[in-house]
Amino acid sequence: MERRSIVKKMLASIAGISVLGFAKASPIQTADEKEVNNVTEYEDVPLFSGSTRLGNMIFVAGKGAHVEPFEIKAHTEIVLKELETELKKAGSSMEKVLKVNVYLNDIADYQGMNEVYKGRFGKKPPVRTTVAVAKGGVPGNSLVEMDCIAYV
Amino acid sequence: MERRSIVKKMLASIAGISVLGFAKASPIQTADEKEVNNVTEYEDVPLFSGSTRLGNMIFVAGKGAHVEPFEIKAHTEIVLKELETELKKAGSSMEKVLKVNVYLNDIADYQGMNEVYKGRFGKKPPVRTTVAVAKGGVPGNSLVEMDCIAYV
Amino acid sequence: MERRSIVKKMLASIAGISVLGFAKASPIQTADEKEVNNVTEYEDVPLFSGSTRLGNMIFVAGKGAHVEPFEIKAHTEIVLKELETELKKAGSSMEKVLKVNVYLNDIADYQGMNEVYKGRFGKKPPVRTTVAVAKGGVPGNSLVEMDCIAYV
User: Fold this and answer.
1) C16 φ, ψ to 5°?
2) Among B21, B55, B114, whose Cβ lies nearest the Cβ of A42?
3) Where is the signal peptide (chains A, B, C) (predicted)?
4) Which end of chain A is more exposed for a tag (fewer CB within 10 A), N or C?
5) Using 50, 70 and 90 to split pLDDT, how confident is the model at C131?
6) Largest CA distance in chain B
7) Residue among A28, A39, A54 whose CB faces B125 most closely
């Protein structure tokens, strides 16, 4: 009897774990909730977060550079540091980035951006999509904006 | 014998659940298929969906506003409502959005867009990336286009 | 005794599977690592990957067309083929794409792009976001750039 009871408890316990695993696979039953970091407000109302997380996926907000010198290498350096700061805050890292979007103010800055960008995400770099938007099209006159998707 | 048989059945049943959970963790074995909503056709051929879903992740198509008045607050309102409609159709909500991309027709509309955008995604807002593309660069002359990634 | 031992082993084995499933649901414990394909280097340093994978999610880099003729239908065809090549290399397919981003050099190419794009992702197409960036804003003078998120 005691053994049966122990087995039952073990089964119940395993079932509990299994059901959690299953809940993940079957999203309608999931209890997963997103977490957010570093909320920016506008007129005292939440506008956007610096990062959001669901499960092991991390989404980082578009980051720009808004200070002198207005030069592509300096701005790329600032933006990469901002991404890294958000990633670390979320428990991730540059090496765990899956996808980066790069928005340049001017396509002429493509090579300069690459000079600073190369190697910054480790030996297994994320995919990347780069385009130049309208002149002045990055908010705050940044020469470059980047966002990313990563994991923990 | 009977007890052994019951234990075996329970084990088999638990194993079944576990294997599903494991299949999710080990994607090569996964039976997950995407679901789509609201397919737009072009010349009677599927062009794009309004939303796609894989597991608990939801992807919503870029939404624009194509009606009078061609004014940023009005267009932002329309676009946010379109996102919300797609999210609800997919079983999600504004509060469950993880990432938004905002494409403006004109960077001068940044503040006007923010006025309408703020607070619309709840107290834990998604990350956001905003850029202004080419003048007239949003299809259908919309002043703003937004897409998002969410969950259920 | 033997039976007890077998039951214990079975329980341990199932627990092992369950814990993996649970590890997936509880990302801090996950052992998941990204995989990458087709790394492009810049000055002998990794710059970006052609695709990255985490679990069953696949991210494909922005693809452009850099050859004659500089005509939207030809370039769209090249870009779609490049996406397909990366998807297959990653074990995925056009039918398993969840989200596409299309960056045009000129909004006037919207219809021409659609002519080639329609039907290419099967009957359950991905969501899509299309914008025209700056003239010349797609690297390498491509008339169109596309990236995607897919699954395996």
Assistant:
1) -60, -50
2) B114
3) 1-25
4) N
5) very high
6) 78
7) A39
